[in-house]
Amino acid sequence: MVVHVSDPAFVHDLLASLKRANYEAAQRGETTVEVIAPPTATPEQALLHLGFYLANWRARHPGIVADIVR
Fold it and tell me: N or C: which terminus of the chain carries fewer CB neighbours within 10 A?
């Protein structure tokens, strides 16, 4: 899954946060992060869980958008 972050200054914070939450993630562009779904999750479950996680992360970073783009 690919996540777009509206401000490149927050990409590192998102990466660190995802890794602390046991997601496998890597920066793929100035404002993009690739997140690998856990092998035990269905694609639907992985999308749902990451969506909830990003909603929580955005709540802690007002004004920053981080959305799943694919």
Answer: C
CA 6, CA 62: separation in Å to the nearest integer? 12
Give the predicted TM-score (pTM) of the model. 0.90
Instruction: Look at residues 64, 67, 54, 59 and name the one whose alpha carbon lies nearest to residue 10.
Output: 64
Q: Which of 9, 15, 10, 37 is nearest to 27 (CA)?
A: 15
Please write the tens of the pLDDT for every residue from 14-33.
Answer: 999 999 988 999 999 999 99
Residue type, 30: E
Beta-bridge partners for 5: 66
Query: CA 29 to CA 43: how far, in whole Å?
Result: 23
